[in-house]
Specification:
2-enoyl-CoA Hydratase, Chain A, domain 1; Lyase 2-enoyl-coa Hydratase, Chain  A, domain 2; 2 domains; 6-stranded mixed sheet; 4-stranded mixed sheet; 10 strands; 40% helix; globular; Enoyl-CoA_hyd/isom_CS; lyase; ClpP/crotonase-like domain-containing protein; Enoyl-CoA_hydra_C; ClpP/crotonase-like_dom_sf
């Protein structure tokens, strides 16, 4: 499981062993997250505020953004997994950080704007959601390209009960994922929904037993990372662009990316390997 690859919080700057798949670059020391390389080509960020059920607050987001940028720039990493604990992916935003802020405070500092930095990562991001994914936690999960959920996962946008609305993408991404009627119902009532409902709604790709969730997510991340890195990033770019424009514009953009990949070494290798009936060896070039 994951613990084999976690960086110890007791001595984050000096640890004795190096897992088989750990990146050659030295990992940064963090206070609120753990970083690891649980499989070849896979980088993992584990939210680590157990006493607060991984509640999101600015120091954690700063660390998360830093780790994501480093993984995105690491040539040994082809896909990234974000997860929490079996009890909570992230139970929401830390209300203690927000409760005394004024309009001038949040508007002036563009509060929570930086929470969406994860969406700027070029490499595929997979969220492994166990336990609570509420408020900001649900929004963070929805920033991923693929969400997998544990059987006991609970999703929701309960901000309405605090006199506010989702502010890190909840009203936009949830609506696009599950449709206007359902999004309206859950956002306006603040009700939660289960992992099975999330699967039925199309929000998550699959549901696993909690103890197998992270391993299954890492397995898929590894399969993605084994493909041509440029093609994977182009496919992600095409899908995300298509969600923002009309069909015709999306088709044109897709075709341009498709054409562009014929200038890569990976395209030559992939097609040659297919014809020669061997496994392709992609180099991300």
């Amino acid at each position: 499981m994951l613990l084999r690859f976690q960086i110890s919080r007791i001595a984050p700057r000096a640890f004795a062993f190096k897992p088989a798949y750990f990146s050659t670059s030295a990992p940064a020391a963090y206070d609120h997250i753990l970083v690891s390389n649980p499989a070849a080509g896979v980088g993992q960020v584990t939210l680590n505020r157990p006493k607060a059920l991984n509640a999101l607050f600015t120091p954690l987001i700063v660390e998360l953004n830093d780790a994501m940028k480093k993984f995105d720039a690491d040539p040994e990493v082809g896909a990234i997994v974000i997860t929490g604990s079996e009890r909570a992916f992230a139970a929401g935003a830390d209300i203690k950080e927000m409760k005394d802020k004024s309009y001038a405070d949040v508007y002036g500092e563009q509060f929570i704007q930086s929470w969406s930095e994860a969406t700027k990562v070029k490499k595929p991001v997979l969220a492994a959601v166990n336990g609570y994914a509420l408020g900001g936690g649900c929004e963070l999960a929805m920033m991923a390209d693929i969400i997998y959920a544990g059987e006991k996962a609970v999703f929701g946008q309960p901000e309405i009960k605090l006199g506010i609305i989702p502010g890190a993408g909840g009203t936009q991404r949830l609506t696009r994922a599950i449709g206007k009627a359902r999004a309206m119902e859950y956002i306006l009532t603040g009700k939660n929904f289960t992992a099975q409902q999330a699967l039925e709604f199309g929000l998550v790709a699959a549901v696993f037993p909690p103890e197998k969730l992270v391993d299954e997510t890492v397995k898929t991340a590894g399969e993605i990372a084994a493909n041509g890195r440029l093609a994977v990033q182009a496919a992600k770019e095409a899908i995300n662009y298509g969600l923002q424009v009309g069909l015709e514009d999306g088709l044109v953009y897709e075709r341009r990316l498709f054409h562009g990949l014929f200038a890569t070494e990976d395209q030559k290798e992939g097609m040659a390997a297919f014809v020669e009936k061997r496994k392709a060896v992609f180099k991300g070039k």
